[in-house]
Each structure stands twice: as C-alpha cells, then as structure tokens.
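Translate sequence into structure tokens.
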Amino acid sequence: MKKVIFFEVQGGSDKGQDGHRKDTMPMVEALQQKGYPAEVVFFDVTQMDAIYDYVKHNAVAYVSRINPGNMVGEAQYFGMLRALCEDGIIGLPHPDAMTGYGAKDALVKLTDTSLVPSDTYAYYTMSEFFYQFPKALALNERVLKQNRGSTGEGIWRVQLMEPLPVGATEASLTTKVKCTEAKDNHVEYWKLGEFMLFCEQYIIGDGGMLVDMPFLPRIKEGEIRLLLLRDTPINVVHKKPAAAADAFSATLFSGAQYRYDPPILWEGLITDFLAQLPHVKDKLGGFDLPLLWTADFILRDAPDGSDDYVLGEMNCSCVGFTSELSLAPRVADEIIACITEKQQIKA
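Result follows.
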C-alpha cells in the first residue's frame, strides 16, 4: 500500500521539540493505527528533484503542513505539488486551492454573493489604489489588508479625522486620517496621500496587493472562525477584541479573548455558508475543498435589522489544531475518505 506523505520544513516557530508541528505526528500516528502507512518528508528546495521522485513513486496522497512564512522556495514547492497532482497523487490540498482560498483577493471574487460586501476591492498597482481608495473612504471607514503577513500585520483600519465637505465624492490626498493596525491596535495619524505611499510596501513585489473592505463596527462583538474539515464544520472559535476603544484586532497577540464553541451554537451562520459553498468553490477555481481550512466572519446589521455575517478571510495553507489534538483521528478518517473517493472515481 502506498503512503500518505506529510510535507513539513525544518525549523520555524510552529515546531515542537521533536522538530515537527505539534499536530503533524498525531495525524501520522492516527493513519498508521487505521492501517494506512504515513510518514513525514521535509521539503528542501535544494533536494526538490529527489523529493519529487520519492513521493511520485511511493505516495498515494500528500498533506501539506508547511507555513509559507517558514519556507524557502515557495514557488518551487507549489510547482512540485502541481506536478505531483498531475502525476495522479492526491493533493490535500491542491496547490491552486491553497492560493485560491488563502489569498486575500478571494473576497473580491465573491462580491456577487451575500458573503462579501459589493464595495470590496483589490489593488494590484498604486494607480488602482490612488484611483479607487479615496472614493471608497469618502463613503465609509475602510479596512486595508495586505496579502502577505500574519497576526494582523499590515491590516489597517482607516478613518477620516473630520467630515468631508458637503458633496465631496472622494477624500483629497491632504485629508487627515486615523490609522489603526490590527497587529497591536496601535494608532497612527497621517495625511491620506502619505499613508497611501506608505502602503506601497504591501503592493510591490511578488504576490503583492491590498484588499479594501468597509469597516464593520460589530467586530467589537467578536470574529467567528469556522474550522472546517472539507465541508464539515468541526469547531467554532469566537475571537473577541480587547476592550480598548481603538481595538479591532481578533488576534491573541493583540489581547483578543478566544472562546471555543460547538458548531451547533452557530447553526444559522453555518447553514447559510454551507448552502453557498458550491458557488464559492466554483468562483475560486473549482478545485476540491481543502482538507482543513478556516473561514472568518464578522457580524453586521442586515437591512431588515437581523444579524448578517460577512466573510472576512479564509485560510488553508497550514491550518493547525494544536489546542485540540484529539481531532487527529477524525482528520485521519477524512484523509482516508478523500483517497477512497478519488480511487473510486478512477475505477
């Protein structure tokens, strides 16, 4: 029987004393206990050809457990995964699904759904940014999100310091703005044009871009993160920002409080999201849903006064469950189910 290969890299802050992510070996061991051979292979860009050849001939599927922030040779790694999928190895997930679901501009592709506000934009060049952002800011407070980074770095809430003149349809570049970064909720004051030039660092370079969304005040009530195993929510994390007046970040680093809920407590949100998953899947490339992924939501008021949920971000590059390692056997069962389904299709 061919193996399930778990890809990791050496080093990084997400590793335990054994050199592995804390949730990797529990999955490997759970598969082995169920009769499926499994092992970890450490990706090294200098050994990529040998790794590719080994996995191609010995694996039935791979599970990617690499945080992109810890990796040297990300483009080469994704290229190798793509080649393995073309060779018939089952990708959990496919590399294009990782980029499709994980990139911030996935939100812009979903503005025709009820999940994402229609005034959500992506800026890939400074000219696009300077054309649209002052217009958007004239209508409401905004949140800018860089494509790279983590723990709230490069995510800014932007507010006008004073109302614009009556009839103004865009903010001038000399308009004073208050900018709060989600990393630690610290506040900076800028002229709009100078702040936008500061944001050039997020747009330039490979994969650079900014996503621009309306700020949702009910973030103070908390962000709701669904942890999904393909199309099944298995956990809900309610992340409430710190109580400080300017705090809007839902990261632990910024002082947010986390609460873990069973999915049944968020039945309305889950039912609505699952109903739209086929459309989401189609809009993001038609790939199989990631094995383990998250979707983050923020409450807003619907026109009829009821609660509505806005999708703020998705992640599937290396979603962890280190605080609930008891989930490992369930993840192993889902890996086996994925393999069985693919083999039945081939047959």
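Note: The longest helix spans residues 328-346.
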